Amino acid sequence: MNVANITQVIQNPELMPSAAAMATKSAGTEFAGAIEQALATVDNLQLEADAESLKLASGKGNLHETSIAFDKADIAMRLVVKVRNKIVETYQDVMRMNI
Prior knowledge:
By secondary structure, this protein is mainly alpha-helical. It contains three helices and no strands. It has one domain (3-96). The longest helix is centred in the middle third of the chain and has 43 residues, at 15-57. It is elongated. The two termini are 30 Å apart.
């Protein structure tokens, strides 16, 4: 950024939010991607637990492996719920802030 650009930003404050919005958008897409990946992982664990239960019901599965699959899915779901609750709590705190 050269001196002319800095002078334009100082004289025209509306230019500043666009740069901040670009940085926020980039961080937002990274965060959204991380959340999507985590939810996909939880979904896969749930599907694996379902598959193990179907194998067990048909007599081809192992009770120990089924129990482990259910525990993995349960722990992952609990973690997602806790993260979701923390995000909502943080959002509510930000909305309560005075400007």
